[in-house]
Amino acid sequence: MLKQEKVQFVLDTLEKLYPETPIPLDHKDPYTLLIAVLMSAQSTDARVNTITPLLFKKADNPYDMIKLTVDEIREIIKPVGLSPMKSKGIHGLSHILIDKHNGEVPANFKDLEALPAVGHKTASVVMSQAFNIPAFAVDTHIHRLMYRWGLSNGKSVEQTEKDAKRLFPEHTWNKLHLQIIYYGREYSPARGWDLDKDIITKTIGRKSVIEEYYKKKKIK
């Protein structure tokens, strides 16, 4: 199958499976989304969604957030992990939003990535999901699947992002990012993977990945 045919197969299959793509992190505006995405690093969306209501009850905007101390923020968000770094980032970026951006979340990569604890992936999620500006945030699911599908070499998330943007039409990026994540969780996880249920990898997957899967299955 030619690469362009593979791309079309992925797009068609994901559209059938996930015609609707609700944003997995609960939020009400760009600020609360930014905080939720920052908190989701090395944590699960489900866990973040149990903690953000507690934080946002006290502070759901930068002006209220800076009234809290870093330690108070840390105490609330501790269950999501990496709380020392995340609490400093939340407090610090809230100050910067007030001082430099009139309390608003900027809708551009340069200013977003200049904020404490905000990397390119977090900025990409905010750009696509808060402002509907085309971006392709690569998380572990997308990185894994792009390699399994033979659409990227898996060497780095930066390369995976470049390949995804090169292969998939720009107008699909924001929705496709979520569709691939949903598919990865449901049909092509890192652990407990059942290739028979993973229709995309089974149909267009990298030959070496499929061979390795059956080899391990045989050993078991």
Structure characterization notes:
By secondary structure, this protein is mainly α. Helices cover 64% and strands 0% of the residues. The longest helix has 19 residues, at 83-101. The mean pLDDT is 96. The chain has two domains: 3-20 and 137-219, Endonuclease Iii, domain 2 (Orthogonal Bundle), CATH 1.10.1670; 30-131, Orthogonal Bundle (Endonuclease III, domain 1). The protein is elongated. The two termini are 31 Å apart. InterPro entries: DNA_glycosylase, HhH-GPD_domain, HhH_base_excis_C, Nth. Residues 39-186 form the HhH-GPD domain. One of its GO terms (molecular function) is metal ion binding.
Characteristics:
mainly alpha; Endonuclease Iii, domain 2; Endonuclease III, domain 1; elongated
Secondary structure topology:
Elements: H1 3-17, H2 30-39, H3 45-58, H4 62-65, H5 70-77, H6 83-101, H7 109-113, H8 120-131, H9 140-148, H10 157-167, H11 173-186, H12 199-204, H13 207-219
Helix pairs in contact: 1-11, 2-3, 2-8, 5-6, 9-10, 9-11
